[in-house]
Prior knowledge:
Helix content: 25-40%
Mean pLDDT: 95
Distance between the termini: 59 Å
Structural class: alpha/beta
Strand content: 15-25%
Amino acid sequence: xxPYDRLSHVQSTTMFGGMENPTAIFYDADAYRKRAVxxxxxxxxxxxxxxxxxxxxDDWHHLWLSEGFATYFAALWLRHAEGDSAFRxxxxxxxxAVYASKATERPILDTLATDLMGLLNSNNYPKGAWVLHxxxxxxxxxxxxxxxxxxxxxxxDSSALxxxxxxxxxxxxxxxxxxxxxxxxxxxxxxxxxxxWRHEGRRLTLSIRQVQPEGWGTFRMPGLVLRVDGKPVxxxxxxxxxxxxxxxxxxxxxxxxxxxxxxxLLQANVRAER
Length: 274
């Protein structure tokens, strides 16, 4: 249910495109007059009424609990309004913002940061949204929805930290997700995969290497899907190098697509090995 007794959308003066004041969202007057206030901005600021206002971060360094949530739920609203293709395009756009940003050299939970306004960056907005999206892919829609509702119900009208969210989601999923949140929030960057393949006889061998900068660390990606000529193949990435062997493959693959359903924030290069 909506956390407050009303909601007003107000043409005002703000240094941002929108400001999520509880019950009264402010929008930049110039943008409003020019009809340049985007629907996604309205969705983002409205989502803040639940996440950021009714439930807020107890420490500014955990800003993703507000901005990442609003960014992701605005994207989910887009999915509801315009369909899955619009949602996927929006998440790709958010991923490109992460790839292009210098902020990705730092973790989301950048506790050493002293420029608090500087935390209004791609880590806490689009990358924070991707933390939620990948989590949803890992645990499924039902557990994800249950966890989000429990999070809101437990911490409504109060504040919390990322560890509290991890605990709530682990309970909803029925599994310990500490590894995932440690990776997603405390490691900088994202996985960069170099995938080489060799076809010999009726066997296809794939060598999957993580080639992101050493300082980003190694990422776990359980259940990563590769689509080989239209056929999905699942591989669990647990370390820097992973080998995958597929038997009864009659011909060399024409196409290998990494993460075709777009659940992971990653970059991948696929090549034939000689």
